Amino acid sequence: MIRRTVRFLDERTGAAPFVRKALRYVFPDHWSFLLGEVALYSFAILVATGIYLTLFFKPSLTPVHYHGDYLPLRGRELSEAYQSTVDISLRVKAGLLIRQTHHWAADVFVAAIVIHLLRIFFTGAFRKPRDLTYYLGLLMLIFALLEGYLGYSLVDDLLSGMGLAIGYSVAMSLPFVGANVAQLLWNGPFPGGHDFESRMYMAHVLLLPILIAMLLALHLTLVASRHHTQFVEERTTEKKVVGIPTFPGYAPRTLGLGFAVAAVLFLMGGLIQINPIWQWGPYHVSQATNGAQPDWYLGWLIGALRLVPSFDVTIGHYTLVPNPFWGGAGFPMLVFLVLFLWPWLERRVTGDQAFHNLLDRPRDAPWRTAIGVAFFTWIFIVFLAGAADRIFVMFGLSYEGQVWAFRVLVWVLPVAALVLTKRICDELLRGEVVEARRKLVEAEPVA
Amino acid sequence: MRRVLAGLFVAGLLLVPAAAADPPSPGVTHVEVPPGTAAVDWGTQLFGANCVTCHGPHGKGIFSPVRGAGDQTGLGPSLSGVGARAADFYLRTGYMPLDDPHNQPHRSRVLFSDRELAALVAYVASLQPGPPVPMPHPERGKLAEGQEQFTEHCAGCHQIVAAGGYVTNAVAPPLDKATPVEIAEAVRIGPYLMPRFSDEHVSDAQLDSIIRYVTYAKHPDDRGGWALGHLGPVPEGLVTWFIGIALLVATCTVVGRRLHS
Amino acid sequence: MRWLIALVVLVLGRLRRRPRLDSEERIVPPGTRDRHAENVVLGLFGCATLCGGAVPAIYAFDSIPNQTQFLGLALGLAFAFVSAACIVISKRLVVTEEIEGEYGLSHPDEQEDVKRIVDESGDRLTRKRLLVLAGAGAGTALGAALITPVASLGPVLDVSSLYRTPWRRGVRLVDEGGRAFLADDIEEDTFYTAYPEHADREQMGAPLVVVRLKPEQLQLPDGRRHWAPDGILAYSKICTHAGCAIALYRKPTFTPVEPKPALVCPCHYSTFDVANGGDVLFGPAGRPLPQLPLTIDSSGELRAAGNFSGPVGPSWWGVRRHGPRS
After folding, report:
1. Element holding C72 (H helix, E strand)
2. CA B59, CA B57: separation in Å to the nearest integer?
3. Which of A235, B174, C42, C112 has the largest count of CB atoms under 10 Å?
4. Residue in chain C nearest B156 by alpha carbon
């Protein structure tokens, strides 16, 4: 049977040599190398559940009256976008499961990319020849953030509508070109009406998924063509890659992981409620609710927006830098600039232009690890500040006090983290030298 | 080095509960009266024992700080004309007595008995004519109107499903423990920093709808599963990392292998 | 019946295993059998089948409550069992080999060849640089030409509409239901949302928040002393920081201990002083809240007496260059 199928395909495609090679392709086998696949499989679930949702969602702001079963909205005027989402959630069978799985998958997708990025950074996997792969990954992260934001903003509920107003304000705050960019994107002043809704829809459903898919294909091709990196172990060298073959070893592992991702996402989608938009109500420019937050992966931006003190940079009557720029645009641009420049910076500072197929353990590169920990601590503290109002409501810690505390901690803690991490890495390395010497000494005969 | 780290860690753990702890509440003074005493008279005595330090004799108010009995600062608004409505609200929620006039009143255990409460309310109502305890009818309210009204007037502070929120220098409390009468009272009074909404602004029918909605919001339609406190993306992010990513990274460690030593 | 027997024989015959040829050189190394693991995998696939099969059953029976939870549980568990089966297979039922391969290097010879192919192909050209420049120029112009229609997405060159609001002298203030606000209706210690009569409400310039203070509490800047008749104040409801609706009003019950009246935005908690013309008390807003001058007409209704004190909504490069336009 198998023989006949393979012959059929090879006769028509000539692919047997490629498949032969691919089946015995070497995959270095460490659990931390699987994090990227968690992101990949989350993306697959996103596309599948997303396609289902497009069959029911109406990307239009045409007002309609709600006559469904959910009493708090009965008789109210809602946009078709909001109503169709309420219907998917409350009327379409299995609709809520698919919608919640889709939203959890988006949150987990970005989280998986972040944890994969951390692994890449702290093991030095971004070094030549894999810096291009790294840049593609960073681009995918940026597109994933945008894609998620647009996805939950399509629904035209109160919470996401407020988020769009903030996005508009950040666009407006870009120096020199802000107003022009914002007017271009929104076709005039906020809220932009029907035009903006259909643009968001096209971007979310077509443009960005295609972009991400193309980058993903390139990213995976590059990973395969250069082979995956590996840690220094018994038989591994810069020239020799040791691992398990695609078939039969790796295939069931990756399939198992893929099914596990599907399992976790569908379990979350069914058991844990996410974004119950029927409770938020429809968006109106004149309305707002307390406790409005973006999805977690934009929490760093709301934290930054809340921490920046009140000032616009003006020159005479010209407002050069409106306030939201620093937190909403400058901060993320700086973070991504550092991330993009890092491989080049490291090459310049260390003078190391060689290929690296072997990975560092974090302790093997104390400065990179220490600076990396400090950098991500900085981002994390800002991210925490975004939840300061909920921390206040739950634990009673004064909000104004927290703002001041965070403004100080955001600079102090990264420095402390840098010093601490460098010490820990150095101590761990020294400890290994001592351990090795001890073994030698103990092996010597006493007499 | 490690000991210093351990010490810092323990100190850090202790700081959080210390910072969030309430000062101990001083308690109330109960007053024994012979049976048959009129409620207003009993209320007068209770008021004298518990409230006069801050609210002044005859509830006239104390407008600049005065060193009162038991090391308490005396400072408090006048109660003339607030009527049974305000007294009932502040006492039944435990907002009053307030240990420090500079603190925001918050819901706490009511240390007075029901009859003591009635006595105090009668006393305050007797100071000057004022509004009575309201009698709302939430069953006559409409949920859709309530959602609209609540969004317009209340959600900015209390959050869209009344989970509570922050206003500069104060907390707008969650309403999960509020009874229909308390909601009606609060809306009409505007306690502490909350705006007040008279029946010209929010009619009695609209108030019934609001109360119906707030009652509903205590147990809203959560058919999506575990509701995470109705707080939106913050707990959702926690679940993403501590449940989703945690499970998936654990799966990776099972599927893949560790480093050979 | 004969056909059935023939079918069975055919299938069973196919199942007869081919003899192991140990002398043949194997590609995949041999490994030990593990029937116990096979049983586990069979059990896991069985469970997965049950869970998967439960999904259409749960779907079909409306009487089952908490549909979303049960559907998610069944589907999720089905995937989980399949995943577990794959993992058991990977650990116990396929041979765990470690094989070696080679890392790719760069290929200087082929790189050189590529360079030479390109160079040698340019043999017939006498002015390579000029041609390349001209081609680049043409390409850039073409790119610009293709991008030009993007400008139709919005008024990218004309941002003057950002100054426009639907308010001007004489426009009546109306509530959510379209009824006019009477000055006498406006009470202290509370807040109202007002809209311009006959205008689109879903624009940032439209909604107002209206409050009343005692005239002696007012500390309005020069030039605005008459903007608040009877102490009634109107401000834009849209925060000057990031465009959220200012839905919080804070009013003191007892002024010796409580902070002064203020409008607060729930997004980043910019706090605006209502008594002194909308100055920022707390939070990141960089501009005061625009105030709308009010007047009370002969029927006692509230009307706008002009446009706002400044442009409405979030700031941009030109926000301080002009006042708002009607």
Report:
1. helix C67-88
2. 5
3. B174
4. C247
- Residue among A31, A271, A288 minimizing CB distance to B253: A31
Taking only the tens place, the pLDDT of each residue in A189-226 is 999 888 999 999 999 999 999 999 999 999 999 999 99
* N- to C-terminal Cα separation, chain C: 92
Chains contacting B (3+ CB pairs below 8 angstroms): A, C
CB contact under 8 A, C87 and B255: yes
Angstrom distance (rounded) from CA C253 to CA B196: 10
Does residue B131 have a cis peptide bond before it, meaning omega lies within 30 degrees of 0?
no
* pLDDT tens-place string over residues B123-177: 999 999 999 999 999 999 999 999 999 999 999 999 999 999 999 999 999 999 9
- Gap between the Cα atoms of A159 and C278, Å rounded: 26
Q: Do B193 and C68 touch (CB under 8 A)?
A: no
Q: Which CATH number is B138-218 given?
A: 1.10.760.10
pLDDT band at C98 (very low <50, low <70, confident <90, very high): confident
Does B23 reach chain A within 8 Å, measured CB to CB?
A: no
Query: With a cut of 50, which residues of chain B have pLDDT below it?
Result: 19-25
Nearest neighbour of C202 by CB, restricted to A175, A252, A285: A285
Q: Are B213 and B175 in contact (CB under 8 A)?
A: no
pLDDT of residue C287 exceeding 90, the answer is yes
Q: Is C216 on the interface with A (CB under 8 A)?
A: no
pTM: 0.92
Residue C213 has pLDDT above 60, yes or no: yes
* Mean of pLDDT over chain B: 89
CB within 8 A of A365, min separation 6: which ones? A124, A425
Q: Strand pairing of C302-304 and C173-174? A: unpaired
What is the 8-class DSSP label of residue A272? B
Q: Do A259 and C86 touch (CB under 8 A)?
A: yes
Domain C162-326 has CATH 3.50.30.30: no
CA closest to B254 among chain A residues = A31
Q: Does domain B26-127 have CATH number 1.10.760?
A: yes
Smallest CA–CA distance from C281 into chain B, residue: B168
- Please give the average per-residue pLDDT across C272-286, as a whole number: 96
Whether residue B159 and residue A256 make contact (CB cut-off 8 A), yes or no, is no
Question: Which residues does chain A have with pLDDT short of 70?
Answer: 447
Interface ipTM above 0.90:
yes
The pLDDT assigned to C96 comes to: 82
Residues of chain C with pLDDT > 70, as a percent, come to 94
Rounded (5°) CA angle B35-B40-B46: 80
Neighbours of C228 (CB within 10 A): 22
Neighbours of chain A (3+ CB pairs under 8 A): B, C
* Residue A355, both tokens: 């290929």
A189 → closest Cβ in C161, C207, C283: C161
Structural tokens at position A211: 């972009």
**Domain boundaries along the sequence of chain C:** 32-95, 162-326
| Range list for CATH 1.10.760.10 in chain B | 138-218
pLDDT for B23: 46
